[in-house]
Amino acid sequence: MRPLYREFQNQAQIDAQYNPSLALPDPAAPGRHFVAQSERARSQLRCVLDVPYGPTLDETLDIFPAEAPNAPVFIFVHGGYWRALSSKEFSSVALGLKPLGITSVVINYALAPRVSIDEITRQCRAAAAWTLRTIQHYGGDPARVAIGGHSAGGHLTAMCLQTPWQDDYGIKQDPFTAALLFSGLYDIEPLRYSYLQPQIQLDDGIVRRNSPAFMARPCNTPAWITWGGNESTEFARQASIFDAAWTAAGNTGELRPIAGADHFTVIGGLEDPGSEVARWLAAKLGAPGIK
């Protein structure tokens, strides 16, 4: 029998690799955690919500300004396999970063199947460009902006790193101080054969245009490409092939998993100012809270 993709013979084998909820005793638990922590962030931290960065209703972002002016900035791109969730479930990233003096910007975007991954990528690039041009009005330093994301947000972060910023946006070519990619999808071909396909509707062109493992360009942004140590072998492979492409282009990358983390807890460090993840980001950004 000819495999569907690589060594995988059928959809069930691919789903076992790419549906991380299947391994959880309570699949709804991560969602409850993110909602509760994000509600806490919005109630306890100063925030400016639903700021439009583009013309459609879904093109908004939420800003959690640091206390000090001219603060470094972290742009976060949420996951949900491009077809679920919103910025509001991930306000929690500000909990670990604000104590370190970092402003958080959490991007919202339209979801598949109403829009394609091409359009979602465009929206995230537009949000990043808006932030780079405008964040000084919210107390942020546009010269110290990092970007990162989780799962589909890791993919979208990688796509932002591929962007010809100078040619397309009139922004300097490598505008980000650092990049932090959690459990991303960098070769999206196998998802054509998964439970996700009816919603994300991949075709040859979308796969070719949106698989950043095969289009890495030279870029001065240092990147930490990570995943949970307890995740499937495919998430480890996804990280490894993107790191290989990234470093082959002459770029600076760190390829390290987060020990003991699964696909959902892998971003837990963004909620904790003492975590390795938060302190790595603060050091790269020169954040005032770093000791």
Description of the molecule:
The longest helix is centred in the middle third of the chain and has 18 residues. An eight-stranded mixed beta sheet has the order 1-2-4-3-5-6-7-8, sandwiched between helices. The model has no long low-confidence stretch (mean pLDDT 97). It is 33% helix and 15% strand. The chain is globular and about 60 Å long. The chain starts with 10 loop residues before the first helix and ends in a 6-residue tail after the last helix. It has one domain: Alpha/Beta hydrolase fold, catalytic domain (Rossmann fold, 3-Layer(aba) Sandwich). The protein has 291 residues and is of the alpha/beta class. Helix 3 links the parallel strand 3 and strand 4.
Strand content: 15-25%
**SSE arrangement, N to C:** HHEEEHEHEHHEHHEHEH
Uncertain runs with pLDDT below 50, 5 residues or more?
none
Per DSSP, the total helix count is 10
How far do the termini sit from each other? 57 Å
* CATH class descriptor: Alpha Beta
CATH architectural designation: 3-Layer(aba) Sandwich
Strand order of the largest sheet: 1-2-4-3-5-6-7-8
CATH topology: Rossmann fold
Helix percent reads: 25-40%
The number of domains? 1
> Gyration radius, to the nearest Å?
18 Å
What is the multimeric organization of the chains shown?
single chain
Main sheet specs: 8 strands, mixed
Structural class: alpha/beta
Number of strands: 8
**What is the residue-mean pLDDT, rounded to a whole number?**
97
Annotated CATH homologous superfamily? Alpha/Beta hydrolase fold, catalytic domain
Q: What is the molecular shape?
A: globular
